[in-house]
Design a protein that fits this description.
Elements lengths: L1 H11 L6 H9 L8 H4 L9
Length: 48
């Protein structure tokens, strides 16, 4: 439930989150070892 709330907050902030990538990380209990940008569909960290 907590993770769903975080996902909702990010989406409310108009971040286009790749939900598959997000839930894969959560399922393996690696919760947030990466910045939010990793979970976005358009990865801002690797912008040319």
């Amino acid at each position: 439930m907590f993770m769903q709330k975080i996902l909702n907050v990010w989406m409310d902030e108009e971040k286009e989150i790749d939900e598959g990538k997000f839930w894969k990380e959560v399922d393996y209990d690696r919760q947030f070892t990466r910045p939010v940008e990793y979970y976005e569909k358009i990865n801002r960290l690797h912008k040319d």
